[in-house]
């Protein structure tokens, strides 16, 4: 806990206005009030008509499974702002032993730890902090899986650390891509991590490739065998993936090459990474046949001053204010297609054995460039895997643990526990 001495103090400065500026000040306040009442704020750029319509249709869903305002009306827990939380953090790397080296910013010397003392506050309602005792009680006899890439593992690490305040799990490794955390002591709750960075079957066919990040074969209609055979064992499946789809890839459907992403080969149609993520997400959501599926939306990278493999870095020490940073480009497309595929899967499920839930963390995380590891994390190379071609860089993709990522479990717990009541 000694590392926490560097945490920030927050001060609010009073500002005063002379009599001459009183009238324009009152006018400005009236304008702000009108905008607030009319709910004019949009969290993402709306220059594309489909982006606006998709967001509005999603908003009705999130209201049905969100928090509650003081007047009892439902609210959207995914729209809000970051506010100071002087009681955080609720665990450290001293109290939680499972933090992966990629996310252990305390251990690797991140100098400004003020990033841990913020919590996500939805507009007009409260999102309770994660309560491990209540969560474990509600999950008694259940199995929850995190399916996806290293950000799915990032999410799972946060959950395990939050639970350590009440119970420690027994850990086992059925395979290098399959980790199991089991809570006994009357809970009989199991957390499973499946490493499936593309969600579907994939093969590394060239460790270098056109972009020096490998060339992959992706079988877009075949859910990854590391997790697909286990779906009937799961009560909850938290699905998330996007960051690996930037890698060049050959795209297959029904065993046939249908195109590629950035393969630079003649006579092969470049279907783009958007198509690859859309079809992989579709296959994953349709593969789960029972229980609850939670699709977590994409987590934005926050490189400034250069690209990820050059001089890009993330050195902020405070969150952005609402509206200062907006999703754009490929990341905006990723977010929109995930919402679209969720809505299509929910419609296809038709109120059957599978319950679909969308966990839209994107708006909250676009504001937290201060909560990435940057250079303050470990990196152990795996022998023989892209060893000659992969350069270690500043990490502005993953999230420090503890940190902003803990809000994902505030949201997840609230969604699941509220839906049970």
Q: Could you characterize what this model shows?
A:
- The protein has helices at residues 22-38, 49-64, 132-138, 150-163, 272-287, 329-349, 362-365, 406-420, and strands at residues 67-68, 74-75, 80-84, 118-122, 143-148, 170-175, 178-183, 189-195, 200-206, 215-223, 236-240, 249-253, 256-261, 291-296, 354-359.
- It has one domain (88-112, 126-420): SGNH hydrolase (Rossmann fold, 3-Layer(aba) Sandwich).
- The radius of gyration is 22 Å and the shape is globular.
- The model is unreliable at 1-65 and 385-390 (pLDDT under 50).
- The chain is of the alpha/beta class and 421 residues long.
- Helix 6 links the parallel strand 14 (291-296) and strand 15.
- The two termini are 37 Å apart.
- The strands form four sheets. Strands 6-7-8-5-11-14-15 form a seven-stranded mixed beta sheet, with helices on both faces.
- The protein contains eight helices and 15 strands.
- 26% of the residues lie in helices and 20% in strands.
- One of its GO terms (cellular component) is Golgi membrane.
User: What CATH architecture would you give?
Assistant: 3-Layer(aba) Sandwich
Rg over CA atoms, rounded to whole Å, is 22 Å
The proportion of residues forming helix, as a percent range, comes to 25-40%
The percent range for strand residues is 15-25%
> CATH homologous superfamily name?
SGNH hydrolase
What's the total helix number? 8
Identify the CATH class: Alpha Beta
CATH topology: Rossmann fold
Mean pLDDT: 84
Which geometry do the CA atoms define?
Answer: globular
Strand order of the largest sheet: 6-7-8-5-11-14-15
Oligomer: single chain
Q: Give the number of DSSP strands.
A: 15
The biggest beta sheet is recorded as: 7 strands, mixed
Number of domains: 1
């Amino acid at each position: 806990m000694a590392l926490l001495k560097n945490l920030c103090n927050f001060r609010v400065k009073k500002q005063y206005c002379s009599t001459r500026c009183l009238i324009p000040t009152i006018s400005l306040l009236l304008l702000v009030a009108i905008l607030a009442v009319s709910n004019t704020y949009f969290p993402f750029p709306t220059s594309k008509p489909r982006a606006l319509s998709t967001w509005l249709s999603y908003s009705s869903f999130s209201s049905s499974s969100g928090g509650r305002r003081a007047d009892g009306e439902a609210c959207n827990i995914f729209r809000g702002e970051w506010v100071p939380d002087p009681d955080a953090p609720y665990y450290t790397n001293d109290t939680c032993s499972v933090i992966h080296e990629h996310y252990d910013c305390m251990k690797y010397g991140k100098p400004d730890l003020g990033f841990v003392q913020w919590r996500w506050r939805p507009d007009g309602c409260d999102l309770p902090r994660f309560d491990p005792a209540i969560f474990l009680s509600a999950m008694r006899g259940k199995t929850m899986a995190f399916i996806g890439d290293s950000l799915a593992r990032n999410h799972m690490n946060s959950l395990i650390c939050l639970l350590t305040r009440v119970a420690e799990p027994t850990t086992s490794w059925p395979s290098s891509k399959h980790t199991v955390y089991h809570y006994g002591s009357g809970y009989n709750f199991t957390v499973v991590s499946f490493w499936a960075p593309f969600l579907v079957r994939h093969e590394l066919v060239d460790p270098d490739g056109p972009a020096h990040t490998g060339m992959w074969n992706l079988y877009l209609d075949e859910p990854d065998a590391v997790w697909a055979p286990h779906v009937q064992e799961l009560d909850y499946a938290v699905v998330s993936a996007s960051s690996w789809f930037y890698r060049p890839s050959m795209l297959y459907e029904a065993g046939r090459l249908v195109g590629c992403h950035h393969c630079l080969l003649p006579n092969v149609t470049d279907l783009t990474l958007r198509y690859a993520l859309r079809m992989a997400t579709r296959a994953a959501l349709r593969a789960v046949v029972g229980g609850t599926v939670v699709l977590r939306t994409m987590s934005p990278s926050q490189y400034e001053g250069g690209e990820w493999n050059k001089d890009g870095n993330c050195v902020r020490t405070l969150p952005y204010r609402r509206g200062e940073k907006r999703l754009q480009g490929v990341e905006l497309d990723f977010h929109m297609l995930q919402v679209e595929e969720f809505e299509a899967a929910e419609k296809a499920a038709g109120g059957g054995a599978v319950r679909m839930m969308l966990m839209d963390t994107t708006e909250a995380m676009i504001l937290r460039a201060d909560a990435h590891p940057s250079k303050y994390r470990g990196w152990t190379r795996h022998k023989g895997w892209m060893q000659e071609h992969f350069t270690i860089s500043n990490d502005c993709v993953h999230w420090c643990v503890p940190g902003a990522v803990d809000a994902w479990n505030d949201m997840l717990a609230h969604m699941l526990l509220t839906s049970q009541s």
